[in-house]
Amino acid sequence: MSLEFAVPVQSTGARPPVQPGSPELLRSVFRRHAAGVAVITAQGERPVGFTATSLTSAAAEPPLVSFVVGTGSSSWPVIERAEHIGVHILGEHQRELAGRFARSGADRFAPPTAWHEGPYGVPVLDGVLAWLSCRILARVPAGDHRLIVAEAVAGDAAGEGSPLLYHGGAFNGLREV
Questions:
Q1: Pick from 42, 118, 50: which is nearest to 90 by CA?
Q2: b/e 5-17 (16+ beta carbons within 10 angstroms → b)
Q3: Are 151 and 63 in contact (CB under 8 A)?
Q4: Are 148 and 79 in contact (CB under 8 A)?
Q5: Which residues, at least 6 apart from 12, have a Cβ–Cβ distance to it below 8 Å?
Q6: Which residues of 60-97 are buried (b: 16+ CB within 10 A; e: fewer)?
Q7: Opening angle at CA 102, ends 140 and 165, nearest 5
Q8: Of 14, 72, 97, 98, which is most buried with the most CB atoms under 10 A?
């Protein structure tokens, strides 16, 4: 069985048409979707982490979150074996931190990144709007990614500021209307 997206082949001249059912179609659609920015961390031989825009609240009872991680990510081998992970909600003042955790090859936990060991040995980033320590319940294959489902077991939502958003391929803050 083959699946194909129904996409009108209509060009405004601004962008070339995108191949139906392609990864580029998905990326171009989700560039139009504003998403909150989070950093996921875990502790292996050394701490690892990555920027995620796929974080979602999955259930209230029990308190579950979900996100995806690429199996080609440098963080995946640690996440694959970890029992607990950290989830950090970034503020708009943390664009540089989001960029650091999104870059390949960066030493994400070196200065100026401020962090400490939190509950269950999870690396907790300082100065975030909110954070959770979560126990991983499932790693579900999803193409070249894994969907992680985790239960919140500790955390703090006392940070101040406005959330950082990802939209149109860039980190943004909220605008007053």
A1: 50
A2: eeeeeeeeeeeee
A3: yes
A4: yes
A5: none
A6: eeeebbbbbbeeebebbebbeebebbbbbbbbbebbeb
A7: 90
A8: 97
Q: Which has the closest alpha carbon to 55: 101, 120, 96, 3?
A: 101
Cα 164 from Cα 173, distance rounded (Å): 5
pLDDT string in tens for the chain (177-residue length): 333 433 344 444 555 666 667 788 878 887 878 899 999 999 999 999 999 999 999 999 999 999 999 999 999 999 999 999 999 999 999 999 999 999 988 899 999 999 999 999 999 999 999 999 999 999 999 999 999 999 999 999 999 999 999 988 889 888 766
Contacting residues for 120 by C-beta, under 8 A, at least 6 apart: 83, 84, 133, 135, 153, 154
At 77, list the tokens.
């081998």
Give the count of beta carbons closer than 10 Å to the beta carbon of residue 43: 20
What pairs with residue 156 in β-bridges? 131
Q: Alpha-carbon distance 50 to 42, whole Å?
A: 10
In degrees, rounded to 5, the angle at the alpha carbon of residue 165 between the alpha carbons of residues 155 and 103 is 85
Domains of the chain, residue spans: 74-85+103-130+137-160
Backbone torsions φ then ψ of 148, nearest 5 degrees: -100, 130
